[in-house]
Design a protein that fits this description.
Helices cover about 45% and strands about 25% of the residues. By secondary structure, the chain is of the alpha/beta class. The strands form four sheets. A five-stranded mixed beta barrel has the order 5-6-7-9-8. Helix 2 crosses helix 4 and helix 5 packs antiparallel against helix 8. Participates in both transcription termination and antitermination.
Length: about 400
């Protein structure tokens, strides 16, 4: 190796960020392996490369001993003192060796090491770049599919869309372009593995942040999302500014904002509901598009009995129970839905009135329920205000 090699390493360090010392260390290790492989020796060999001019020295290290048992690993004290009188027992004698054809082996090894280090550096750069973008929205071009996995071009690298992160029925043919969630970046021996998702609820969140400026700016916030990918999503939002209508902001003028999101999801239905501090109101909202007559909540069990008009029962439950199931996920409460007729039958079967039901749930009457729920909301608002004041100090 020569000055040109050192100059090439300097350029590599500047352009790829690969430190010269890393290459030198790797090269010394690789040359040592190559030497032993090509020359079939059991010697204790050491390879050193001069960091300034690239000159390579190969040493056979032998321990200074009283009586030699292995000539490849040991040298007698008498022979060592003939070379240098300062040698003592236990010292290491370094003998410089220059095996034939080692220059050719060194050149080949150096080339392989440098190529590998460049690949490693590029992989690290890609890993760091995408690691910082986890949970972000990314647009990818479908390249191919294999054994259920879809491989997606992401500029200078490739991402993977696993079967569990795909939307059933979507066309993942070559050349199709999709917005996806960058779910996770893993470091593997073959380089960074970038896991993508089309089915994760956070994909909905990122799409709303792009399409709704009020969400991006923090004026409108997303409280929760419940999703059955490819079919239907419920999203609960609220406004931090009384003058801004959260629902209107998300829907947009003539529904343009939500339509853009639905188009990205290939007609997945989206229900936008308003989150309210009163859990009974929130549960009622979550069952949209169905109207709700009454909600009886059991705070201890985090369950609710919801009464809807007779003609709205199937709408409230939804096809195969989907609307009720998504409402339960959105609110994180168990929800039992009954029509008005079923509710009356339920009261008769249990020989109770509505007031009896309120009493069973821990309230004296409907008025007591409304009053206590209102007080709870006010106390929560005061606690939040105090916390905000404390955090601001």
């Amino acid at each position: 190796m020569n000055e040109e090699f050192i100059l090439a390493l300097n350029q590599l360090e500047n352009e790829k960020g690969v430190k010269k010392d890393i290459i030198f260390d790797a090269l010394e290790s690789a040359l040592l392996t190559s030497y032993k492989k090509n020359f079939g020796t059991n010697q204790n060999v050491e390879v050193k490369i001069n960091r300034e001019d690239g000159h390579i020295d190969v040493f056979a290290n032998r321990e200074v001993v009283e009586e030699v048992e292995d000539e490849l690993l040991q040298i007698s004290i008498d022979d060592a003192k003939k070379i240098n009188h300062r040698y003592e027992l236990g010292d290491i004698y370094k003998e410089t060796i220059n095996p034939k054809d080692f220059g050719r082996i060194a050149a080949q090894t150096a080339k392989q090491v440098v190529i590998q280090k460049i690949k490693d550096a590029e992989r690290d750069i890609i890993y760091d770049e995408f690691l910082d973008r986890e949970n972000e929205l990314i647009t990818g071009l479908i390249q191919r599919s294999s054994k259920g996995y879809v491989y997606v071009e992401l500029g200078n690298t490739e991402g993977i869309l696993p079967p569990g992160e795909q939307i059933k029925g979507e066309d993942y043919s070559h050349g199709n372009r999709y917005k996806m969630l960058l779910l996770e970046v893993k470091k593997t021996s073959k380089g960074p593995q970038i896991i993508l998702s089309r089915s994760h609820p956070n994909l909905i969140k990122r799409l709303f942040e792009i399409e709704v400026p009020e969400i991006h700016d923090g004026i409108v916030e997303i409280y929760s999302i419940a999703r059955e990918a490819g079919s239907r999503t419920k999203i609960a939002v609220f406004s931090k500014n009384e003058e801004v209508d959260a629902l209107g902001a998300c829907v947009g003028y003539k529904g343009q904002r939500v339509k853009a999101i639905v188009d990205d999801l290939h007609d997945e239905k989206i229900d936008i509901v308003i989150w309210e501090k009163e859990i009974d109101h929130f549960i009622a909202n979550s069952l949209s598009p169905s109207s709700v007559e009454k909600v009886f909540v059991d705070d201890k069990e985090k369950s609710a009995l919801v009464v809807v008009p007779d003609y709205q029962l199937s709408l409230a439950i939804g096809k195969e129970g989907q609307n009720a199931r998504l409402a339960a996920k959105l609110t994180n409460w168990k929800i039992d839905i009954k029509s008005e007729s079923q509710f009356e039958e339920y009261l008769e079967e249990n020989n109770m009135t509505e007031d009896d039901l309120y009493e069973k749930l821990g309230y004296e009457s409907e008025e007591d329920y409304e009053m206590r729920k209102g007080n709870e909301v006010e106390e929560n608002e005061e606690s939040n205000d105090e916390l905000s004041d404390f955090q601001g100090e």
